[in-house]
Amino acid sequence: MANLLSGASGGITRIGRYFTIVSAIPAALFATYLYVLIKSGAWTGTLDWAKVFDGLQLADVALLTILTAAGALAANPLQFMLIQFMEGYWNGALLRPLALLRTLHHRRRYQETEDQIDASAWYLSRLDADHRPPSRRATLDALRADALNAEMRRIRAGYPDGLDEVLPTRLGNMLRRYERRAGSMYGIDSLVAVPRMAMTAQAPELSYLTNQRTQMELAVRTAVLGFVAAVVTIPFMWHQGAWLLLAAVPYAIAYTSYRGAVALAAEYGTAIATLIDMNRFALYDRLRLAHPDDSAVERERNVVLMKILEADPRTREAAPLLAYVPPAQPPEAVAEQATDPTSGEE
């Protein structure tokens, strides 16, 4: 899904607004927090919060502004890598074992939810209609089974359809779910098609997609910086007694921001699916492809189209070939042909 984020961003992101929201604001909050820690005197052993603002000078404000801008500029190109990392694409000898453990954890959770869904559905199917929800005479056990089934389906909605597609993180699994589902009913690969559909979509649709993406990336950036702030707080407050608990504040912000990013990933995935639903025919028109007669033909053609768009060399021998529509003639040319008596002669 990170590839989709990167590919779609080029045509749909207003860099000024995006930079301000996703990069500048979190960087400013993080730099201010570090400034407060440093000026508090906690590192030298004498904690005094009054020092933070008593010695505040214009030079400190200017330096803080410069550091904020520099940090935001330096972190902005890393957003793609941050998304990938938070999705669970962990490489290297140190992170690979952790990725394996987390993937196994989520696979077990995936299988447990499937088992609970099947078991509760089987139990409810054995009951008479008068003794299971939504009947008012439903038994307590039936209500519990129905609630369990609903909760397990909610958890299951955070995973992709295939067990072999499960990733090490919640965010990665939510994005992978929509990455695979969006456009699949039309034979469209969202990773391939969405960057191109972003070039043909209307402004309201792009605005909806961009807003969802910006909110998700802001939550991811806040989660990362919150975790870093929590780690940095520990050595500052290590000898300050109960003030060590201050590290729990940025950690709580990081945790809630991450869970918010997972929820926003579902909204972003819905925006991607909506973009495909509403703009696939505009893409066909832009590529001068004939409209399919039905959904079955559309899926068959899109299998070939996706291979062509991703420059798959195997499409050179692919069949059936895609039918192109000749460009529409301007009204002036049509009127001229209608009035020219020799236009029909060979």
TrEMBL record:
Q: Where are the transmembrane segments?
A: 18-38, 58-78, 218-238, 258-278
- List the source organism: Nonomuraea soli
Region Disordered, as annotated, extends over: 325-346
Keyword annotations for this protein?
Membrane, Transmembrane, Transmembrane helix
* Name of the protein in its database record: Uncharacterized protein
